[in-house]
Amino acid sequence: MSTGGPLIDLRRYADREHLLLASYAMHSSDSAGRGHHEQPHAYRGPYGRDRDRILHSSAFRRLSGKMQVFTGEMGTYHRTRLTHTFEVASVARTLARVLRLNEDLTEALALMHDIGHPPYGHCGEDVLSACMSDVGGFSHNQFALTIVEQLEQRYHAFAGLNLSAETLAGQDTRAHKSEAAVGRAPLLEVQIVDAADSIAYDAHDVDDALQMGLLSIDGLSELAIIRRALQRVRDKAGDLPIGPTRQLLVHELIDLQVSDLLQISVELLQSAQGMSADHVQDAGFRIHHSEVLAVERRELETYLFNAVYRHPRLIPVRESAAHRVRVLFDTLTQNPARLPLRFRRRTESIPLARVVGEYIAGMTDHFCDQQFVNLGHSAAGPLADW
């Protein structure tokens, strides 16, 4: 039976947000819009559209071939950038729902946050940043913006994904964290994605390192946060074999951090009731963990840096990956004719070193391996585009 009009329209979408979201959340009706004007969608808000555009982008799909910390040479269990991204999105949406923030914006920011990462994890970024020192270095957070604003090819009339201003601003905040740490605060949705990223990679690096034998439960038990999480495991399940213990430990590590963050945030935001997102930013509201947990998390991260990221088994793998990136960069800057056509065209307006860095940064681990091999097998002709 016809109702005489559309079943869903933007007014109803705004009404739904008004009912569900806190005043200090980023409401879709307050969006500053897009760089290129588009007609509103019948039943999706602006941030839901952003989320879908990121999800369907080629850069997002390539995350499945980019390792988080460890490379594919070390097995298949550990996280890729894609699995990490989904885990961050899950934690971030939980935080957003409890705090009554905009879940669509939160998810869009979470799905985009790592699409600028180069191949070979942190090693790839370190090498590219050194190679590109003459043009300002390399930042995966900044490169994510380059991808969604310039390199993704979705529309015939303009480059990029034409994302909402708030989604782009949130990623820009990640690219300029030191500036964002003082003065006007980022949107709360931006802050919880940053927190979710940190929570996820701490817990999951522990999981991956334990599974690969780089760490032991006994060694980790020296850390206060691990002892607390293990006690929660034993209180619920008793003494278990190492496999189930590891899995439950990761769960408790995440739950411990999320619960602490929510408790502090709920208390903090009580005084923000009735304030708009803009006013909360002006007032400098910043969510954070309790002082006790913040100290314990720093202890864990220092331990992981020394015991995992500098583990002897990783050093030769990282050195080999670094060599491939460096050779590719040096060869392409010396012979830009080997760049794919669209990257050669970018050199007309962008410094060559930056374009070469962009080309390499967009590669998956396997694609980078392939192009490194192709350099040796062919003396001429451009390499493949990703």
From TrEMBL:
The keyword Hydrolase applies. Residues 29-49 are annotated as: Disordered. InterPro entries: dGTPase, dGTPase-like, HD/PDEase_dom, HD_domain, HDIG_dom, PHydrolase_assoc_dom. GO terms for molecular function: dGTPase activity. Keywords: Hydrolase. Signal peptide: none annotated. Its EC number is 3.1.5.1. GO terms for biological process: dGTP catabolic process. Residues 33-49 have a biased composition (Basic and acidic residues). Residues 81-202 form the HD domain. PROSITE patterns: HD. It is an enzyme of class 3 (hydrolase). NCBIfam families: dGTP_triPase (TIGR01353), HDIG (TIGR00277). PANTHER family: DEOXYGUANOSINETRIPHOSPHATE TRIPHOSPHOHYDROLASE-LIKE PROTEIN, DEOXYNUCLEOSIDE TRIPHOSPHATE TRIPHOSPHOHYDROLASE. This is Deoxyguanosinetriphosphate triphosphohydrolase.
